[in-house]
Design a protein that fits this description.
about 220 residues, alpha/beta, 3-stranded mixed β-sheet, 5 helices, about 20% helix, flat
Length: about 220
C-alpha cells in the first residue's frame, strides 16, 4: 500500500497550546506573540509583523495559537495574511497592496515555472479577469457613543459594485483605510488563481515570488 506523509511544520505546534484571555486593547503583534507562546521550550518561534494595528475587545476562549491566527483573519475580513516565511518565523502583513505598488516586501526568493515543462499539473489554474466588474470596498466601525466612522477604498476610481462590512474590532480610522485598499486590490486583481503541482524543483517556500510562463496565453 502506498504511504503518504504530510509534514505540517511549526503550525502543528500552534495547535497544541491552549489560550483563554480577553483584551480591551491589543496590537496585532502582541496577539501573535500570545499565539506562539506556551509551546515546547525547545522551539522558539519568532514573530515578524510588518503592520501593527491596534485591536479592541478581543476574546480568546480555550483556543489554540492556530485559532488565534484564523480569528485575526476574520477580524480583518481576510485582509491580513499570516504564514511561516521560514520554519521558525511567523510573518504577518498586507500582501496585495505592496505588490500592486511594485514592492516585493518579503524578498524571499524567485522561482520560474513554465506550464507544460516543469509543472506536473495545472488544470486547477485559471485566468482571473475583473475589468468588467470592479469593486469598491467600504469598511465601517461603530463607536461607543453610537456614531459610526467609515473609510472607502480609493485604489480604483471606477467601480460597478460595493463590498461593505463593519469591522468593529479595528480601533483606528487609518487602519480601516489601509484594509479597505488591501481588500480592493484583493478583489480587483487580474491574473492567475488556483494552484499548480511541480517536481520539487525549482525549490520554493512560502513567501517566494513565482513567475509563470504559459505558451497558450
Amino acid at each position: 500500500m502506498p504511504l503518504e506523509v504530510e509534514c505540517e511544520g511549526y503550525s502543528w505546534l500552534l495547535r497544541r497550546n491552549t489560550i483563554t484571555q480577553f483584551w480591551t486593547s491589543v496590537t496585532v503583534k502582541d496577539l501573535l506573540r500570545v499565539a506562539v507562546s506556551g509551546i515546547e521550550a525547545d522551539y522558539n518561534i519568532g514573530v515578524l509583523c510588518d503592520i501593527d494595528y491596534e485591536l479592541s475587545n478581543v476574546s480568546i476562549n480555550n483556543a489554540s495559537g492556530f485559532d488565534i491566527i484564523n480569528n485575526l483573519s476574520k477580524i480583518t475580513d481576510g485582509c491580513l495574511a499570516c504564514f511561516f516565511i521560514q520554519p521558525d518565523t511567523l510573518w504577518c502583513g498586507l500582501i496585495y497592496t505592496p505588490y500592486a505598488n511594485g514592492d516585493n516586501i518579503l524578498n524571499a526568493g524567485l522561482v520560474n515555472y513554465r506550464l507544460g515543462y516543469n509543472v506536473v499539473m495545472d488544470n486547477s489554474l485559471k485566468e482571473r479577469l475583473t475589468e468588467n466588474d470592479p469593486v469598491e470596498v467600504k469598511y465601517s466601525k461603530k463607536l461607543s457613543n453610537g456614531d459610526k466612522i467609515s473609510q472607502t477604498s480609493d485604489a480604483f476610481k471606477n467601480f460597478s459594485r460595493t463590498h461593505s462590512k463593519i469591522l468593529n474590532q479595528i480601533k483606528n480610522s487609518s487602519a480601516l483605510k489601509q484594509l479597505a485598499n488591501e481588500k480592493a486590490y484583493q478583489l480587483n486583481y487580474s491574473g492567475y488563481e488556483g494552484s499548480i503541482s511541480a517536481f520539487l524543483q525549482p525549490y520554493a517556500t512560502p513567501g517566494y515570488q513565482a513567475n509563470m510562463t504559459d505558451d497558450r496565453y
